[in-house]
Amino acid sequence: MPTLRPLAPSPSAEPQPDPQADATATPAVPRLPGTPADPQKYAVVAAPSAIDGLGAFAAEFIPARRKIGEIRGESILTTEAHARARAAAKASGRIFMIALSERRTLDASASTDVLRHANHACEPNTVLKVQQGRVAFYALRDIQPGEELTARYGPTHHAGKLVCRCGSPRCIGRL
């Protein structure tokens, strides 16, 4: 588990509201017209993962059944996604794509959303939901600060050729 630094305000900063106090509270800083809302509901950081590469880690307590946040990206045809995935696999080995439907795929390769680093686990602590072209993560149980956020990927382009390294006693072995 990586060491996470507490999110402490600078000495001159205004006191921050307690995020646990009211989940429906209006943000302190208004958005400019035309600016999309921040899709992240809880603080998540990217750090080296024992599972694979970078992982997404909770930087604060996340209660069960709560939306953690979303991954944004470019919606592309699935045929284009396959071509991009082949090119990405040859270049870096990292592919950040999620099927939205049989015809559309979300390419999150250029996304800055930290949740794109969530690794696969056979016994995950989050569930990935695709609804109306949006990809969101929800906590399956309470998640403690510093815990890696994981999701079950389901069928992947690896077609069973990639060894799973989640470490679960119930590991399926391959993705």
UniProtKB/TrEMBL annotation:
<keyword id="KW-0158">Chromosome</keyword>
<feature type="compositionally biased region" description="Low complexity">
    <location>
        <begin position="19"/>
        <end position="28"/>
    </location>
</feature>
<dbReference type="GO" id="GO:0008168">
    <property type="term" value="F:methyltransferase activity"/>
</dbReference>
<dbReference type="GO" id="GO:0005694">
    <property type="term" value="C:chromosome"/>
</dbReference>
<protein>
    <submittedName>
        <fullName>SET domain-containing protein</fullName>
    </submittedName>
</protein>
<keyword id="KW-0808">Transferase</keyword>
<feature type="compositionally biased region" description="Pro residues">
    <location>
        <begin position="8"/>
        <end position="18"/>
    </location>
</feature>
<keyword id="KW-0949">S-adenosyl-L-methionine</keyword>
<dbReference type="InterPro" id="IPR046341">
    <property type="entry name" value="SET_dom_sf"/>
</dbReference>
<keyword id="KW-0489">Methyltransferase</keyword>
<dbReference type="InterPro" id="IPR001214">
    <property type="entry name" value="SET_dom"/>
</dbReference>
<feature type="region of interest" description="Disordered">
    <location>
        <begin position="1"/>
        <end position="36"/>
    </location>
</feature>
<dbReference type="InterPro" id="IPR050777">
    <property type="entry name" value="SET2_Histone-Lys_MeTrsfase"/>
</dbReference>
<feature type="domain" description="SET">
    <location>
        <begin position="40"/>
        <end position="154"/>
    </location>
</feature>
<dbReference type="Pfam" id="PF00856">
    <property type="entry name" value="SET"/>
</dbReference>
<dbReference type="GO" id="GO:0032259">
    <property type="term" value="P:methylation"/>
</dbReference>
